[in-house]
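Give me the fold.
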Amino acid sequence: MTLPDVTDTVSSLRDRVAAWRSAGLGIALVPTMGALHEGHLALARRAREVADRVVVSIFVNPKQFGPAEDFERYPRAEAQDRALLAGLADLVFAPSPARMYPPGFSTTVSVEGPSAGFEGDARPGHFDGMTTVVTKLFLQAAPDIAVFGEKDWQQLQVVRRLVRDLDLPLRILAHPVVRDEHGLALSSRNARLSADELALARRLNVVLAEARDELRRGRPVEEALAAGRRELAELGFGPLDYLALVDGDTIAPLRSLDGEAKARLLVAVRLGPVRLLDNLEVPGPGSGA
């Protein structure tokens, strides 16, 4: 298969996009931080289904990492990423931090509402960094569609709010969480887990499913969440940032499962060197799902 072209400049990216547009072609963007795995490739495949041309951005964004987080250790595999995108992407946009944030850069895009709580509390500044770089990518690539995974559920809702509030002329397309054969949500950081840690990590989605089932059977929300927190601790997971039931659109905490809100369980827990995120839809008791 043909390897995608690679560019690291906004001018070259815009020239390619302009040529495609003049030919009447539709464009999809898949924003990533590289170290691609099957989850990212699923997004690229979805983008290929809905657009004529696909741009995959690869940029480890320093602005969404806190001072104590793993920016320097975040995996980078540029050549391997390009090979994996053969036949899926037409262009890889891989700017350097200096190109994305040149000297004197002083603008931050901040989205309130769904950014409050959970990841917003656990990682101060993370969402501002994410929304700033995503806004730049949308303006640089000018896509018709941008494809995001549902694993980072709160992030997805923040991006949707950004696009709505700023009237950005593109559609956000969500792709379901891609999991391994044991149900673990795929993440570039999973490669840093030991064999024993990986086996334990694969219990996380089981605990979430148990909490979902308890909620659907009518167990009070706080009781079901408390049981899930205890189980995570007893299994040997590290510090828990949160296990919560929220409105899937607004990310507001829910005290009951009444079938009106689009309920979602969110979890973030540490295991060895890795912080694991996952989420699960919780249909209302009368939905029949």
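The chain has two domains: 5-175, 188-281.
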